[in-house]
């Protein structure tokens, strides 16, 4: 029977199918960070269970870490305790660990692919919803809660039922200034934040094949924002070229064997998807969100919606509430809306390609008066690569802060936070109320759009600046 | 994990869609290394004013909803993060059951691991249950997991679906890990076959492993 990419990966990992259809699914990679692992390690200790496969597990600190001077001690005592707890746990259970002051440290979803830990055809989990990012490698990757983290630690498996198959085909090619972020915002805007619920979402079509790995990661990263269990992109020559030579990737003959297997994973031509969605790439504009849900997307030439335009009174009330929270007027043009902060970073958009795209806008310009702009690379290696190319100097000369790697202002667990009422052009993934700091107002957009807003002081069409 | 059999309790109405995990428990409260103690910060942004005082308009600050053990809400509850701190916060507040037309997948799954029963029902039924909930303490709902039905205060009842395996685990208060470890032979067999037939699969070994 014809199978999808998801079906093939799933079938290759079923250890046992229980009578009611629940499967014991084998997990190839388990990524750990400091926020969602302490209770799981504690559970393991309390029950006297061992960590089944330290050699399939890797840990890094990212959510809580300061992105300022790393030579200083961590000031927030609770953040410090979580980091120290992880360090104690990895030592006790023998988990490979990327230390805070190592170049290998970074956001877990940047580090996994970068180190060759996340590979096609694998099952990859982490106690973090943006684990979907690794789907860009052609891996079935999804976020789990801490109980499941403990389950994977103890058994190297999860109890799961198969998801439904969804395919999103983006045909044609995007216009200049339109990035993977804009494609994904357009998809979420179209299908909504529950559009993918219960599904694994495979991205296909010419516009997807044309993306580099960073762009594919941006797309899969935000598949969770469309409600999907995971995002997937079939591995191809772009994927293999990215993987070859990376630290933990197979080498030599093993790499050839791996590629031969990976080539068999693509969805069969006659496979049937439960849900199909199509988009025309040429119709996608540089986009951003106006509300407090990632589905509240408009093009840069769009206007903020009017609650009166919604027939469902509950939806109209919700839109009004969002406008009040966001400090926007119905019918207002989004272009020209002033910002206070620009944040370039997060597991969505902090790879070297993202920084190049932002630097291309920042070069020779300066951050507008009254705007704070920060660039937070996704890992120590991304930071070093950017510095080798001179991107750090472009940013610093333009008035951007050049910081150390971490999750930073995406969720404000570390000191990088918005204050109440501040409006932020953010390359992160969630514009929920208070996400970047209590009362903070988040507009999701691409790195180029965020850089353009930073130097203009307001949202502008990035196509006018390239 | 506490068993879930039958629950008779006050239900709090939260008539909004897309209540996300950042609303249920904001990220700044995730800096704990324990599971307990999160209840006081559940829904913190809506529940407390800037000066830390209670917002009297928020449903869980009003009687009898301070003692609610059931939430009735609208679509896509629990969307966003995988943080199990969200169900931990609800549980620590006292919530054992959430009723909504739809849930985000990870949150839905996390509930079962903590003895919370998430129930999916059509929107019009959720709206009717919300009207029941608005009647306060005179209108307790009874959720009977064994019979898979909710008894309403007017004597009528509503049937609901639940996955058989998860129902069993909830009613018995069972630990998933213990169940899975009974399949140790199959897991070890899978690993041996893999090692033999697909030796190219790399392991993560670090020279300077901690």
TrEMBL record, chain A:
Pathway: Amino-acid biosynthesis; L-leucine biosynthesis; L-leucine from 3-methyl-2-oxobutanoate: step 2/4. Its EC number is 4.2.1.33. The keyword Iron-sulfur applies. It catalyses: (2R,3S)-3-isopropylmalate = (2S)-2-isopropylmalate. Residues 7-457 form the Aconitase/3-isopropylmalate dehydratase large subunit alpha/beta/alpha domain. GO terms for molecular function: 3-isopropylmalate dehydratase activity; 4 iron, 4 sulfur cluster binding; metal ion binding. Pfam families: Aconitase (PF00330). Binds 1 [4Fe-4S] cluster per subunit. Keywords: 4Fe-4S, Amino-acid biosynthesis, Branched-chain amino acid biosynthesis, Iron, Iron-sulfur, Leucine biosynthesis, Lyase, Metal-binding. The keyword Metal-binding applies. One of its GO terms (biological process) is L-leucine biosynthetic process. It comes from the Bacteria. It is an enzyme of class 4 (lyase). [4Fe-4S] cluster binds at residues 347, 407, 410. Catalyzes the isomerization between 2-isopropylmalate and 3-isopropylmalate, via the formation of 2-isopropylmaleate. Belongs to the aconitase/IPM isomerase family. LeuC type 1 subfamily. HAMAP family: LeuC_type1. Heterodimer of LeuC and LeuD. This is 3-isopropylmalate dehydratase large subunit. It comes from Swaminathania salitolerans. The gene is leuC.
TrEMBL record, chain B:
The gene is leuD. This is 3-isopropylmalate dehydratase small subunit. Catalyzes the isomerization between 2-isopropylmalate and 3-isopropylmalate, via the formation of 2-isopropylmaleate. NCBIfam families: leuD (TIGR00171), PRK01641.1 (NF002458). PANTHER family: 3-ISOPROPYLMALATE DEHYDRATASE SMALL SUBUNIT (PTHR43345:SF5), 3-ISOPROPYLMALATE DEHYDRATASE SMALL SUBUNIT 2-RELATED-RELATED (PTHR43345). SUPFAM superfamilies: LeuD/IlvD-like. One of its GO terms (molecular function) is 3-isopropylmalate dehydratase activity. One of its GO terms (cellular component) is 3-isopropylmalate dehydratase complex. The keyword Secreted does not apply. It comes from Swaminathania salitolerans. The lineage of its organism: Bacteria, Pseudomonadati, Pseudomonadota, Alphaproteobacteria, Acetobacterales. Keywords: Amino-acid biosynthesis, Branched-chain amino acid biosynthesis, Leucine biosynthesis, Lyase. Belongs to the LeuD family. LeuD type 1 subfamily. Pfam families: Aconitase_C. Heterodimer of LeuC and LeuD. Residues 1-123 form the Aconitase A/isopropylmalate dehydratase small subunit swivel domain. Signal peptide: none annotated. It comes from the Bacteria. GO terms for biological process: L-leucine biosynthetic process. Its EC number is 4.2.1.33. Pathway: Amino-acid biosynthesis; L-leucine biosynthesis; L-leucine from 3-methyl-2-oxobutanoate: step 2/4. It catalyses: (2R,3S)-3-isopropylmalate = (2S)-2-isopropylmalate.
